[in-house]
Structure formats: structure tokens, C-alpha cells
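PROTEIN–LIGAND DATA SHEET

This sheet pairs a single protein chain with one bound small molecule, adenosine-5'-triphosphate, given as SMILES. Inputs appear in the order they were entered. The predicted three-dimensional arrangement of chain and ligand is reported afterwards as a C-alpha cell string under its own label.
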Amino acid sequence: MAKIILNDGLKSINQEVQIVATLASSIAHEVRNYLAAISICAELSEKQLSNIRERVKAASYLIGNLQLQIKGVVTGKPETTDFKRCSIVKNVEEILEQYPFKEGERELVMLGIERDFEYIGDPILTNHILFNLVKNALRAIANAGRGTITITLKPDVKYNRLTFRDTAAGIAKEFLPKMFKLFESQSTAQGDTGIGLAFCN
Ligand SMILES: Nc1ncnc2c1ncn2[C@@H]1O[C@H](COP(=O)(O)OP(=O)(O)OP(=O)(O)O)[C@@H](O)[C@H]1O
Ligand SMILES: [Mg+2]
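PREDICTION REPORTED AS:
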């Protein structure tokens, strides 16, 4: 009996440690995304400076937000106080404005927007999802030497959907069951750790 209790206790501690480790990795991953974006700004125009200010603000917001999430996990109460009504079009516009596209990359992104829809959530976290999807897709396009990205908004009675599609090589079939798992990556690029899609999920 004592052994069972001990095992259960250990299991629950391990799960908490794992969740905290996941969130800590997400923080490091997303902050590094921002730093990479900042370092790309070699010639600093006023527009780029204001872009940097926005990113620093968003990064510090994200750290605070993830800290609240960790607290939520540890105390068993998820933090949703920053959830509000958001416009999905605003997210798409912001990410296309803020993403540090290299030359020729912005032109690869096409939009299919019938009309806006709202959701209840945190717009900064939604931007992080889009940021990661754009980053993955642009890498896949560069690797394949072909492809475009299409972001489509499909408002509907039952579900509103944002679909994100690229036409590069696609994700290998055998990798699909692992694609949302933390630290699963098929990329050989330096700094790619397999955190992006786990965060999105
Ligand atoms: N658009 C895509 N096209 C092809 N493969 C993809 C695409 N998006 C993700 N993948 C595959 O899924 C893997 C996991 O993606 P994920 O974003 O979680 O990690 P990563 O991009 O390797 O690293 P990180 O996001 O932490 O920098 C990638 O390594 C890649 O093999
Ligand atoms: Mg990624």
C-alpha cells in the first residue's frame, strides 16, 4: 500500500515538473524568436525601431503571461483573466506587419479573408501561434525551393476557422503522430528545438 501511494505521489510530482519544464521551454523558445527578429533589423529605420519596441513589449508580456500559467498549473487554477474578445483579422494583420520577413518572403503569403470573426482568448498568444506557423512554413519553402503560404478565414455557424497552409514538401507521414510533441524536430537548422508546434498545440 505504502508503495502505491509513493508511486502515485511521484507520478503527480513528475507530471507537474514536466508541465513546468514545458512552459519554461516555451518561454525560452518564444523569447529567442523575438531576439532573432530583433537581430535581423540591421538598418534601423523609425518603422523598425517601433517594431522592436512592440516586440520587446510583447516578449515581456509573454513572460509574465507564462509565469501566470505556471502559477495556474501549480495551484490548479488556470489563468484566463487576460482573455477577451479578439478580432482574428487583427491578429493576421499584426503578424504580417511584425514578422521579420527576409527579402521576397512576404510576397509568398496570400490571404483568403471572407470576413472577420471574433474569438475569446489572448491575442498575444494567438500571434505567437501564427509566428511559429509562418516560421515553419518559410523554412519548409526555403528547403523545398518552392511553395507559397495561404492563410484563410472561414467564419461559419458552428465553428469559425483559420486555416494555415503551405505548398512546400509537407510534413513526413511518419512524423505526423509526433508533430505536436515537445522536443520532436526534424529540422537540422541551428536553434530549432521542436518546441514551436508543442506551444501552438
Ligand atoms: N510547414 C511545415 N512543413 C514541413 N514540415 C514542417 C512544417 N512545420 C513543421 N514541420 C516539421 O515539424 C517539426 C516540428 O516543428 P516545430 O515547430 O515544433 O519545431 P522546429 O521548427 O523543428 O523547432 P522550433 O519551432 O522549436 O524552432 C519540424 O522540425 C519539421 O520537421
Ligand atoms: Mg518551428
